[in-house]
Design a protein that fits this description.
2 helices, 18% helix, six-stranded mixed sheet, 10 strands, alpha+beta, OB fold (Dihydrolipoamide Acetyltransferase, E2P), four-stranded mixed sheet, Double Stranded RNA Binding Domain
Length: 172
């Protein structure tokens, strides 16, 4: 699972980062379908009860899971948000139990890292350092034959049989 942590009106403290990483590891074991998790820590002095808010956006193939929790401390808000996201997971194997918000998943950015033109596929090196496979049919904005190593792209990521793969590669 790719993990992005950001702070809005606050700096992400090391203690919070470690807590988030620990919670995300536990979530990844329970829900390998979650490909990307964006955690936003928000500090708002305008709320009477619970000035600390945590928003989680988890990307699953084709959809998103969204949770927002407010508590008095950021640690409590982080734990509450992850607990709420876990409650959204299916209770039975193979059963669709997601609460879904129909918004496009966040577009990941990267560059074409390797090309195998004769075989019709390549690999994108994402800005987060991970690598994703893509097939010639997933490329938009430019014919596959015109792609070059180093071309900037935005991708839609999904879990394939052998790891992350791009369902759409858009040349930027």
């Amino acid at each position: 699972m790719d993990l992005t942590v950001e702070g809005r009106h606050t700096e992400v403290r090391e203690r919070w980062q470690h807590l988030i990483e620990k919670q995300a590891q536990g979530l990844a074991r329970k829900a390998p379908e979650i490909l990307h998790l964006r955690v936003t820590l928000i500090k708002s002095p305008h709320h009477l009860e619970g000035a600390e808010e945590v928003r989680l956006v988890g990307s699953i193939p084709g959809d998103q899971l969204v949770v927002s929790k407010q508590k008095k401390t950021m640690d409590e808000a982080i734990r509450a948000a992850f607990a709420a996201l876990e409650r959204m997971l299916p209770r039975e194997p193979g059963r669709h139990g997601w609460t879904v918000v129909k918004e496009p998943a966040p577009r990941l950015r990267g560059t074409v890292h390797q090309l195998f033109p004769e075989e019709g596929f390549g690999f994108v090196l994402l800005d987060n350092g991970r690598q994703a496979y893509f097939h010639r049919r997933s490329v938009t904005g430019l014919p596959f034959e015109k792609l070059e190593v180093g071309t900037a792209v935005a991708i839609d990521l999904e879990q394939g049989d052998k790891g992350p793969q791009a369902s759409r590669v858009e040349v930027m």
